[in-house]
């Protein structure tokens, strides 16, 4: 259940994998935008975008709290690349937190209200709040940045597995 020096625990792996699947789902929105909403993805998966984003916000906060509690159980990052690894993980967590927050600001700033899994949390006002909408406008550029960070993360994991032949990827596999 808990992390160790040799592998990530069940909770860490569950959070990592479930968030990976949900984030991949969220990125289907990019394809829908390219197809101008006329693709089957836009009619089936994209309507869940806001609800999944809200779920991801909860999960990333839980994941950050869990990681904070597990930090002493995990092996320390060593070597000349350690600052890069720490910085990369910081940026990934920041991106995973800022994406749903900026989406929330966009919805509220544009006066759209907020409906999550069918529950109306904030009523639609139709009134734009400039500063909220301006902060929310960072949502799309942040998506591209998060996508680049995720691709770098996957690339680094594959590099460790295929080139360095170390246990980095196997630690997450369990």
Automatic annotation (TrEMBL):
Q: How does it sit in the membrane?
A: Multi-pass membrane protein
Q: Which InterPro entries does this chain map to?
A: Cyt_b561_bac/Ni-Hgenase, Cytochrome_b561_oxidase, Di-haem_cyt_TM
Q: Which UniProt keywords apply?
A: Cell membrane, Electron transport, Heme, Iron, Membrane, Metal-binding, Transmembrane, Transmembrane helix, Transport
Q: Which cofactor does it need?
A: heme b
Q: Set out the biological process GO terms recorded for this chain's protein.
A: respiratory electron transport chain
Q: Name one Pfam family in it.
A: Ni_hydr_CYTB
Signal peptide limits:
none
Q: Which residues form the Cytochrome b561 bacterial/Ni-hydrogenase domain?
A: 7-172
Please give an example of a GO cellular component term from this record. Answer: plasma membrane
SUPFAM superfamilies on file? Transmembrane di-heme cytochromes
Report the GO molecular function annotations.
Answer: electron transfer activity; heme binding; metal ion binding
Chief location = membrane
Name its cellular compartments. Cell membrane
Q: Which residues cross the membrane?
A: 12-28, 48-69, 90-109, 142-163
> Which family does this protein fall into?
Belongs to the cytochrome b561 family.
Task: Show the PANTHER family listed in the entry.
Answer: CYTOCHROME B561, CYTOCHROME B561 BACTERIAL_NI-HYDROGENASE DOMAIN-CONTAINING PROTEIN
Q: Which protein, by its recorded name, is this? A: Cytochrome B561 family protein
């Amino acid at each position: 259940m808990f992390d160790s020096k040799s592998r990530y625990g069940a909770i860490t792996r569950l959070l990592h994998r479930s968030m990976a699947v949900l984030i991949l789902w969220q990125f289907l929105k990019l394809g829908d935008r390219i197809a101008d909403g006329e693709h089957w993805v836009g009619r089936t998966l994209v309507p869940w975008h806001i609800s999944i984003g809200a779920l991801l916000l909860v999960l990333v906060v839980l994941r950050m709290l869990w990681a904070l509690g597990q930090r002493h159980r995990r092996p320390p990052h060593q070597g000349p690349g350690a600052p890069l690894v720490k910085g990369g993980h910081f940026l990934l967590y920041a991106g995973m937190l800022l994406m749903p927050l900026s989406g929330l600001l966009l919805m509220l700033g544009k006066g759209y209200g907020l409906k999550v899994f069918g529950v109306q949390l904030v009523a639609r006002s139709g009134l734009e709040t400039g500063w909220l909408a301006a902060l929310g406008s960072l949502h799309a550029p942040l998506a591209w940045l998060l996508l680049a960070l995720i691709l770098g993360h996957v690339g680094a994991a594959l590099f460790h597995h295929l080139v360095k032949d170390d246990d980095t990827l196997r630690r997450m596999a369990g």
